[in-house]
Amino acid sequence: MLTIRELKTPLIGPIDLALHAGEAVAISGPSGAGKSLFLRAIADLDESTGHIALDDTEREAMPAPEWRRKVAYVPAESGWWADRVQDHFTETANLSSLLQQVGLADARSWEVARLSTGERQRLALVRALQAEPQVLLLDEPTSALDPPSVTLVETLLKQQLAAKRSLLIVSHDPDQPGRLGARRFVMDKGGLMEASCQEPEA
Amino acid sequence: MTGYLALTYWDLVAASVFLLLNAVFSIVLDLGLTRTLIVSALRMSVQLILVGLVLKAIFHAGSLLWTLLAAAVMLAFAAREIWARQDRRLSGLWGPGLGAAAMLVAGTLVTVYALAGLIRPDPVWLPQYALPLFGMVLGNTMTGVSLGLDTLHTALARGRREVEAQLLLGRTRWEATLPFTRQALRAGFTPIINAMAATGVVSLPGMMTGQILSGVDPREAVKYQLMIMFLLGGATGLGVLGATFGSLWRVTDTRHRLRLDRLNGGSR
């Protein structure tokens, strides 16, 4: 579904990766290895060379906003541009159920300044899922969550996978790829390698 | 032109007595302002005396070429000032170029309109009218443009996460930067709006005061001042709009990315 060939920026690559519908890929690796830069490059937030296509449609063939609605990237640190939570959401039919699934059913009336890091993380995920993207690029989506919330978010992600959406997730949790049934990759010094199955987990 | 009283250079020396008093206070209270105060006062004196001589020569020559040249020099200084007043600037030629271009278009348009359409001196470019008018328009546009650009660049650099969060939701570069655009436009417009609100109640504008001092009927002076204020407001608005959107166009690209790599500086 998502095909990446020789993706290169001044700091990372070249990277090749194919992500099929309903498939999950997990990337781990040391800080500074370029994991976030890789996701930024796919979302076209930074300039990059190479080929990226979604179902045979080249990225450059569609306007960038349309691409980002189909290939949604949720950074590790989310951005909030208004004071109230509800101003960051458009009223879509799926909004209430999504909020409920991450355990934040009443969050719409809250103030952004009073959200915890974990609440922000979950709300940013909901915000990205509203547009029903075909590919999800998630940068440590559960790093600040307590175990019950991690379970909520992972259940939501498994639902997305079942709906034939693809998932590319950066995670430092060694068990998370297993729970999501994800293929494991390791990123180091700007390069991406598939992790061998026999390798013991660090 | 009755009742105009000329000043001698000794009168000017006497007038600076309070400024010197301030310098003394600064030394006594150890404010560290003495040097800056004296230097800027001296700098102003030299600049103004030179300008007086240059203007006298240009008025005497009555040449279109010299008038245009003087206008170009004024524009260059204003552009430099805009550049210097920004904490973060566009890199490359865009840094000084955008402010200069915005002022050139807005200032020239408004000045030519006023000269050809309203004041109608003969010839139209008569330096006695063209240069002071252009200077006032430039000065105000300069303030607006530099405030607008400075606000925009600082806000974008600090608000990168907010802008990119909106871009990631599939919004265009114009939608994603809208809060910051508004902020920048408001900053650029504020001085001229404040000036219009306070004019006549708190302060008598310099040009009107000058005309009154040189013996012009206050009602006539007011008419001139009103015309100038309308022109200044118009030119500042055009300049700020042009510079802000020009800069937005440059710090984003056609793939709707925020290109902070095209900004330099940032010490605050």
List the helices and strands and how they pair.
The complex is a heterodimer of chains A (202) and B (268).
Chain A: E1 2-8, E2 15-19, E3 24-28, H1 35-42, E4 49-54, E5 57-58, H2 64-70, E6 71-74, H3 95-101, H4 117-129, E7 135-139, H5 147-162, E8 166-170, H6 176-180, E9 183-188, E10 191-194
Parallel strand pairs in A: 3-8, 3-9, 6-7, 7-8
Antiparallel strand pairs in A: 1-2, 1-4, 4-5, 9-10
Chain B: H1 9-15, H2 17-28, H3 34-61, H4 64-84, E1 88-90, H5 94-119, H6 127-158, H7 160-168, H8 173-176, H9 178-198, H10 206-213, H11 218-251, E2 263-265
Antiparallel strand pairs in B: 1-2
The H/E string of chain B reads HHHHEHHHHHHHE
Which stretches of chain B of 5+ consecutive residues score pLDDT under 50? Answer: none
The major beta sheet of chain A can be summarized as:
6 strands, mixed
| Strand residues, percent of chain B | under 5%
> Share of helix among residues of chain B?
over 70%
What value does the Rg of chain A take, in angstroms? Answer: 17 Å
Read across the widest sheet of chain A, the strand sequence of neighbours is: 6-7-8-3-9-10
Mean pLDDT across every amino acid position of chain B: 91
Structural class of chain A: alpha/beta
Strand order of the largest sheet of chain B: 1-2
Main sheet summary of chain B = 2 strands, antiparallel
Provide mean pLDDT of chain A, rounded.
Answer: 93
Characterization of this structure:
- The complex is a heterodimer of chains A (202) and B (268).
- Chain A has 202 residues and is an alpha/beta fold.
- In chain A, 28% of the residues lie in helices and 24% in strands.
- Chain A contains 6 helices and 10 strands; from the N terminus they run βββαββαβααβαβαββ.
- Chain A has a 6-stranded mixed sheet with strand order 6-7-8-3-9-10, sandwiched between helices.
- Chain A is globular.
- Chain A starts with a strand and ends in an 8-residue tail after the last strand.
- The model of chain A has no long low-confidence stretch (mean pLDDT 93).
- Chain B is mainly alpha-helical and 268 residues long.
- Chain B has helices spanning 9-15, 17-28, 34-61, 64-84, 94-119, 127-158, 160-168, 173-176, 178-198, 206-213, 218-251; strands at residues 88-90, 263-265.
- Helices cover 75% and strands 2% of the residues of chain B.
- Chain B has a two-stranded antiparallel ribbon with strand order 1-2.
- The interface between A and B is medium-sized, with 24 and 19 residues.
